[in-house]
Amino acid sequence: MRDDRPAIAGHVRRHLDHLVLPVVDLTTARTRLSSLGFTVAGDAPHPFGTENACVFLADKTYLEPLAVAQREDCEAAALQGNAFVARDQAYRFRRGQDGFSALVFSTDDAVADHARFQTNGLSGGDILEFSRPMTRPDGGEAIGQFRLAFASDLRAPDLFCFTCQRVQPLPADRSALETHENGVTGIRKVILSEPNPTDFQYFLQQVVDERETEAHSFGMDIQAENAQISVLNDAGMRAFLGVEKASAERGLRARALVFTVADIAATQAIFAANHIDHVKRGDSLLVPPAPGQGAIFVFGE
């Protein structure tokens, strides 16, 4: 269906950049993700007390398992208005140490995004600018500089979104890190849940910068440049993910990722060899959450 409001100014449908997955600690996350057949990058600290160990994919998206490295630094940053850390702390307080808290989209102008979010009543906090070092594949060190613009809806305390501008990008050659034993090549779909998905149509339209959505009996879909964002109601969560008792709480929650793999039989063989609990649903493999993996992972050709 189409929104009758005027077209979004400066409309360029956004590219899904990465997904933030809070984890209890990076060691647990690395063990879990490696057992699923992913190649995991080295630990990388943020200057405000968090750290990550990312999983980079060939479609130029990535997963960001996020852990708390220095709690005192995180608390100080949150008090100083760092929305990224404040939202991470709030998520962990409400949902625990393993989960799925944020969708991130790429941008060339985070300042303009921040102004747009403010204008539309969706700002999730002040712009955040930071830099951090990263070890290159050759062992050298590079510095990346980033600028983030946050969007949130007060009705959805367990999910936030932001756009990420790489003011000084990190080295682009990640081919070694983008090759995974499980055959994953990219992210096809991100699944959110909410009893009445269309209540959040406007929020997602603004974040994705896409006017057109598709409503159906199981929820609502909106297309980012490189992946579909689906919001499922209770019936949709049961039908697609086998979640029999969806939460009665209102508000968007990030629940699952759908990966594209080269050979589903080879992927399943890895799960069997590593004793990974999984369910075959149609042509896909569904892996339920576990320590170090706070979302449902779905793998399909």
Question: Could you give the topology of this structure?
Answer:
Layout: E1 16-22, H1 26-35, E2 44-45, E3 50-52, E4 55-56, E5 62-68, H2 71-79, H3 83-95, E6 102-106, H4 110-119, E7 128-135, E8 141-151, E9 160-168, E10 184-193, H5 201-208, E11 213-216, E12 219-223, E13 228-232, H6 234-241, E14 253-261, H7 264-273, E15 279-281, E16 284-287, E17 296-300
Parallel strand pairs: 1-5, 6-9, 10-13, 14-17
Antiparallel strand pairs: 1-6, 2-3, 3-5, 4-5, 7-8, 8-9, 10-14, 11-12, 12-13, 15-16, 16-17
Could you walk me through the main structural features you see in this protein, from its secondary elements to its overall organization?
This protein is an alpha+beta fold. It has two domains: 16-168, 2,3-Dihydroxybiphenyl 1,2-Dioxygenase, domain 1 (Roll); 184-300, 2,3-Dihydroxybiphenyl 1,2-Dioxygenase, domain 1 (Roll), CATH 3.10.180.10. Helix content is 23%, strand content 33%. The chain has seven helices and 17 strands. The protein has helices at 26-35, 71-79, 83-95, 110-119, 201-208, 234-241, 264-273, and strands at residues 16-22, 44-45, 50-52, 55-56, 62-68, 102-106, 128-135, 141-151, 160-168, 184-193, 213-216, 219-223, 228-232, 253-261, 279-281, 284-287, 296-300. The strands form two sheets. Strands 1, 2, 3, 4, 5, 6, 7, 8 and 9 form a nine-stranded mixed beta sheet that branches. Strands 11-12-13-10-14-17-16-15 form an eight-stranded mixed beta sheet. A hairpin with an 8-residue loop joins strand 8 (141-151) and strand 9 (160-168). Helix 2 packs across helix 3. The longest helix has 13 residues, at 83-95. The two termini are 28 Å apart. 43% of the residues are buried.
